C-alpha cells in the first residue's frame, strides 16, 4: 500500500506458555482508510488486535503509531495519543442517559474527572457538543433514555458516540456488528462508513458482507500469521483464503 502509514507492526509475536498465538505479523495501516483484520476462528486476530491496542504486551516485535514507538505503552497512554479502542475504553454507564454518557466522555477528553457531584448547571455546558455526537450516530431521539434500556444495536451506536467524543485519530473497532440483527447490522455499517470521514479505522469483523462493503484494505490471518492482503476482490478469490475458511468450517 502507498500513502501515509499511521500504524505499523513489525514482527509482532505473542506466545502463551510455548503456544504461538501470533507469529511474526507485519501490518501497515494507511491513514484515512478502513482496514479490516479477518480470519477463521483461531486465526489469532483477537490476540493481534489486543496487541495493537496494548491490552496484551508482545513477546517480540514493535508497534509504531504516528512515528512513535508505542510497543511498551499502556492502553490509557495510547488513548491519549489518539488511538482509541471502541467498546473497551468507551465510557458507557447503564444507569445514565445517552446524553450523560457522551458528556462524561467529553469530560475525560478535556482532562477533567468524572465529577458526578458537580451541579447540573456546570455539566450542562457539555450538552450541545454531546448532542452533536448523538446526532452523528443517529441517536438524538434517545438522548434521555438510560443506556441500559437501549436496544442492543442502539447501545453499540452509543458506545461509538462516546468513543468519537474522545476525538480519536485512529479508531479500532472490535467486532462492531457481533450479535446484531440484520437491521442493526445495516445501521451500524452505514454509521461506520459515515464516521470514517477524516478518520482511520481498523476493525476486526466476522461478517464478510460488512467487510466487503466498508474496507479499503484487508489483512487475512490464519494460524497467527498473515495469509493474504489486499482489497476484498483480491483476498476473496485467493485460494489460500478460501481453503482457510472452508477448512475452519466457514462458508
Write up this protein:
The protein has 251 residues and is of the alpha/beta class. The protein has 10 helices and 10 strands. It has helices spanning 45-52, 75-80, 98-109, 120-123, 127-136, 152-164, 182-195, 208-214, 232-236, 239-247, and strands spanning 5-16, 19-30, 34-38, 60-65, 68-69, 83-85, 170-174, 200-204, 217-222, 225-230. It has a 6-stranded mixed β-sheet, sandwiched between helices. A 4-stranded antiparallel β-sheet has the order 2-1-4-5, with helices on one face.
Indicate the topology:
Blueprint: E1 5-16, E2 19-30, E3 34-38, H1 45-52, E4 60-65, E5 68-69, H2 75-80, E6 83-85, H3 98-109, H4 120-123, H5 127-136, H6 152-164, E7 170-174, H7 182-195, E8 200-204, H8 208-214, E9 217-222, E10 225-230, H9 232-236, H10 239-247
Parallel strand pairs: 3-8, 3-9, 6-7, 7-8
Antiparallel strand pairs: 1-2, 1-4, 4-5, 9-10
Amino acid at each position: 500500500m502507498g500513502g501515509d502509514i499511521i500504524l505499523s507492526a513489525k514482527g509482532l509475536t505473542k506466545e502463551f506458555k510455548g503456544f504461538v498465538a501470533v507469529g511474526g505479523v507485519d501490518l501497515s495501516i494507511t491513514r484515512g482508510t478502513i482496514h479490516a483484520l479477518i480470519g477463521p476462528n483461531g486465526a489469532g486476530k483477537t490476540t493481534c488486535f489486543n496487541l495493537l491496542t496494548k491490552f496484551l504486551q508482545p513477546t517480540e516485535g514493535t508497534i509504531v503509531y504516528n512515528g512513535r514507538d508505542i510497543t511498551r505503552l499502556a492502553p490509557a497512554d495510547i488513548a491519549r495519543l489518539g488511538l482509541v479502542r471502541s467498546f473497551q475504553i468507551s465510557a458507557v454507564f447503564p444507569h445514565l442517559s445517552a446524553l450523560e454518557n457522551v458528556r462524561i466522555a467529553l469530560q475525560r477528553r478535556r482532562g477533567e474527572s468524572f465529577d458526578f457531584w458537580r451541579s447540573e448547571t456546570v455539566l450542562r455546558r457539555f450538552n450541545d457538543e454531546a448532542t452533536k455526537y448523538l446526532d452523528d450516530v443517529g441517536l438524538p431521539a434517545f438522548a434521555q433514555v438510560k443506556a441500559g434500556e437501549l436496544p442492543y444495536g442502539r447501545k453499540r451506536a452509543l458506545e461509538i458516540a462516546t468513543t468519537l467524543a474522545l476525538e480519536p485519530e485512529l479508531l479500532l473497532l472490535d467486532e462492531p456488528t457481533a450479535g446484531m440483527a440484520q437491521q442493526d447490522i445495516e445501521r451500524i455499517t452505514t454509521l461506520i462508513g459515515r464516521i470514517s470521514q477524516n478518520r482511520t479505522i481498523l476493525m476486526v469483523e466476522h461478517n464478510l458482507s460488512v467487510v466487503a462493503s466498508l474496507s479499503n484494505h484487508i489483512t487475512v490471518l490464519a494460524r497467527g500469521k498473515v495469509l493474504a492482503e489486499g482489497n476484498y476482490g483480491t483476498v476473496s478469490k485467493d485460494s489460500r483464503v478460501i481453503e482457510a475458511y472452508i477448512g475452519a468450517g466457514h462458508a
